[in-house]
Amino acid sequence: MSTATAPRPVSTRPLVAERRRPRPRAAVLPTVALVLGALYCLVPVVWVLVASTKSSSELFSTFTFLPGTGLLDNLGDLFAYGDGQYAQWALNSLLFAGVGAAACTLVSTMAGYALAKYEFPGRQVAFYAILGGVLLPGITLAIPQYLLMSKIGLAGTYWSVLLPCLISPFGIFLARVYAGSAVPTETIEAARIDGANDARVFVSVALPMMIPGMVTVFLLQFVGIWNNFLLPFIMLSDERIYPLTVGLYTLLSKGSGTPSLYTLAIIGSAVAIIPLVVMMLVLQRYWRLDLISGGLKG
Amino acid sequence: MSVATETPARRPARRRWGAPVLFLLPAAVLFVAFLAIPICYAVWLSFRGMRVTGGGPFGVRQETWVGLDNYVAAFADPELLAGFGRLAIYGVIAVPLTLGLALTFALLLDLPRVRGARFSRTAIFIPYAVPGVVATLLWGFLYLPSTSPGNWILERVGLPGIDALHGPMLFPAIANIAIWGGVGFNMIILYTSLRGIPADVYEAARLDGASEWDIAFRIKIPLVGPALVLTGLFALIGTLQVYGEPTTLRPMTSEISQTWVPLMLIYRDAFTRDDLSLAAASSVALALGTLVVSLVLLRVTQKRSFGES
Question: Are B65 and B86 in contact (CB under 8 A)?
Fold first, then answer.
């Protein structure tokens, strides 16, 4: 914590030395408020981890935060359900979110770079179209998108969920802001003078400079697609193509008739959130969320 | 808008035609295919309807141009208006609390001498990674009298339990799910925006005798204004599109109807009643409403948050 750089005197009792170091008094009230906030956010997560260890008879009969004895049985049941449907849902989610976010990041980066670094007729129009898209994000569009997809015969397929995820006005907006601040125009000019064409300037000069911004767009998009419910819920009818969100919803709504499915929905939820939470914690430092707030200043 | 921060060197390169068009092409094609065309299609569809043409017993049901009939029908439906009413109650609880808590936590994190800030920051951010359906399931069980820890405690001290999914608690209960999921992300945006303020601004204020309280209210909050407008805008747009949470909670309570919020009504009209035209009209109305509300908010706050540079 301390930023002092002077060599510390070697002590045989480091703990005591630590304690004696003058330390500013902790701000008690703010610390307490933050810890309360952390508890509020962690309680449901802790609950699902505890509840996933309970057998279906324990779920409603033992104290809610008391671990049960059924963890391994529940896991077995989860992956056995409907011939391994759960694993299929997880793979589908990974496919939608992984491929969708990667392609969307590339599309957004190219568009953002063009909008930030070129002056061309229609640039203003393109920019306002994107703003309109930001203010009117995907979800209200889900039903018209479905109607259109069914007209061209794609409703119910992987494509019907994947394709609409590839365009993100907000992603383009962020990429444009980031290209504007991270790629110096002088560098582009220098590369041109050296004889590089536009494609080469983009791939070898601009793209490497935009990587932190791209990681941010990718992660936002990944989490967004992974957590999306309405679009796949509307588009898909075949349970084998469901992502985790829609799959878990089906388990839960069937659960009101067959209580044993509640246990499956709970362990399924626990298993579904663990990889995403871990990914977020690991990648936290690569996020450039200042990009979002910084974007507001232009 | 960013005339002040933009240096002349950052101006776009000289005029070129081919390359930027190629770079924009994939985005433009996708934009037209999945945003522009669906919107136009929905608008077109909203003016169409099935009507019986020809007279007597030989009338044929046929799709024809019906003008504003669908819009009239949509707004004459008391359920749509009731849905907007429920949405308003929900939004009045969820939006200010999400933003208020996010701003409070961001300001607390930014204070000197706070312990455990990293832990709290991470913990409060975690719900962002939890899908809305899963969040609803978790809170649903925490609300359910038979599994609620609150009721367990109440029973031990001999008090009657609370059923959060029935009666007056329903709105706060659903709003709480959105607040739980939204506070962390908004907090991080506001916090990163706070970290962007140069420290010498505070030093100067402290030398002038300002307390941390003064600094928060007179310096920090005004300076994160644009970020607050953005988070507010997204919270508002999110509210108008509430769908997953009440739908997921339906099996747990009898008080959420099939048409509880406008999107649920639209879904029913389109897929259960097979009245696509009516659903399209309601969709267009909802989308227009969202756009108008967003523009009014931006206009009112006058921050010109999404400035062109």
Answer: no
List the end-to-end C-alpha distance of chain A, in Å, as a whole number.
34
Whether B19 sits inside 8 A of A114 (CB atoms) is yes
Distance in angstroms (rounded) separating the CA atoms of residues A297 and B74? 40
pLDDT in tens, B111-161: 888 888 989 999 999 999 999 999 999 999 899 888 888 888 888 888 887
Residue that is written with structure tokens 């997921």 in the block: B248
Q: Which residues of A touch B5 (CB under 8 A)?
A: 297-298
Domain CATH for A241: 1.10.3720.10
- pTM passes above 0.90: no
Q: Decide if A34 and B109 are in contact by the 8 Å CB cutoff.
A: yes
DSSP string computed for B81-92: HHHHHHHHHHHH
Tell me the one-letter amino acid at A172.
I
Q: Please check whether residue B270 is in contact with residue A143, taking contact to mean a CB–CB distance below 8 angstroms.
A: yes
pLDDT of A248 strictly over 70: yes
A92: containing domain: 76-295
Tens-place pLDDT, residues A92-138: 999 999 999 999 999 999 999 999 999 888 888 998 898 888 877 55
H helices of chain A, where? 14-20, 28-51, 56-59, 71-80, 85-117, 123-135, 142-151, 158-165, 169-182, 185-193, 198-200, 207-209, 211-227, 230-235, 244-255, 260-283, 290-295
Domain with residues B77-274, CATH architecture = Orthogonal Bundle (1.10)
Q: How far apart are the first and last CA of chain B?
A: 6
Contacts with A258 from chain B: Cβ below 8 Å: none
Cβ–Cβ gap B270/A186 under 8 Å: no
Residues of chain B with pLDDT under 70: 1-16, 54-58, 302-309
> Out of A107, A186, A293, whose CB is closest to B189?
A293
- Residue A258 inside a domain? The answer is yes
Tell me how many domains chain A contains. Answer: 1
Q: Which residues of B touch A126 (CB under 8 A)?
A: 24, 28
Rounded to whole angstroms, how far apart are CA atoms A203 and B23?
Answer: 11
